[in-house]
Write a structure and sequence with these properties.
The structure holds two protein chains of two kinds. By secondary structure, chain A is mainly β. Chain A has no helices and eleven strands. In chain A, strands 2, 4, 5, 9, 10 and 11 form a six-stranded mixed sheet that branches. In chain A, a hairpin with an 8-residue loop joins strand 9 and strand 10. By secondary structure, chain B is mostly beta strands. In chain B, strands 2, 4, 5, 6, 9, 10 and 11 form a seven-stranded mixed sheet that branches. Chain B is globular and about 35 Å long. The relative contact order of chain B is 0.34. Classes of the chains: A mainly beta, B mainly beta. At the A-B interface, strand 5 and strand 10 of A face strand 4, strand 5, strand 9 and strand 10 of B.
């Protein structure tokens, strides 16, 4: 059974304090790993797709990396507007569908 | 370009009532899906569709029905609402990689 585990469940940072969120996965045949951002009361918003170990993607203060067992979302010098829940999802080769499996998310709060 | 539109945004049902959550997308995406999101549980897949006329069950399908008669629409039907179905429901569409989500429907069953 495919599993996606995110840690920590919650993270509080001071503005400017860099940190990383973790997404570990056990799947058969990874097709892609996704990161989403979700603001309160809204649907998830796509951030990145990673396809193979060693790949990295960047967007503003966010950088996503991928190994064969886990992905990290690095947040450099965060600002209060980076506060959100960050969701990781994996897409596998089983079944031939493109429907991802989500982790439970990391709730990030950045204090000014 | 509206993306994925869900209606209604909020709904309160009595136990045993039925209703349909609407989802429409204007991006001509093949793949559509319904998730429910509960505190501490993350997003759990209810049903999904890989094209018009084709649907399949996800992780938590019991108590829900779907159909896909057009590419654009993917309604979710609650047959007989139960308090355990109190949740936030999200519809998503994708073309193979990133998924686009609606704004969600917050459903309370009393």
């Amino acid at each position: 059974e495919d599993q996606v585990t995110q840690s920590p469940e919650a993270l509080r940072l001071q503005e400017g304090e860099s940190s990383s969120l973790n997404c570990s996965y056990t799947v058969s045949g990874l097709r892609g790993l996704f990161w989403y951002r979700q603001d309160p009361g809204k649907g998830p918003e796509f951030l990145f797709t990673l396809y193979s170990a060693g790949e990295e993607k960047e967007k503003e203060r966010l950088k996503a990396t991928l190994t064969k067992k886990e992905s990290f979302l690095h947040i450099t010098a965060p600002k209060p507007e980076d506060s959100a829940t960050y969701l990781c999802a994996v897409q596998t080769e089983t079944g031939g569908s493109y429907i991802p499996t989500f982790g439970r998310g990391t709730s990030l709060i950045v204090h000014p | 370009n509206a993306g994925v539109t869900q209606t209604p945004k909020f709904q309160v049902l009595k136990t045993g009532q039925s209703m349909t959550l609407q989802c429409a997308q204007d991006m001509n995406h093949e793949y559509m899906s319904w998730y429910r999101q509960d505190p501490g549980m993350g997003l759990r897949l209810i049903h999904y569709s890989v094209g018009a006329g084709i649907t399949d069950q996800g992780e938590v399908p019991n108590g829900y029905n779907v159909s896909r008669s057009t590419t654009e629409d993917f309604p979710l039907r609650l047959l007989s609402a139960a308090p355990s179905q109190t949740s936030v429901y999200f519809c998503a569409s994708s073309i193979g990689t990133e998924a686009f989500f609606g704004q969600g429907t917050r459903l309370t069953v009393v």
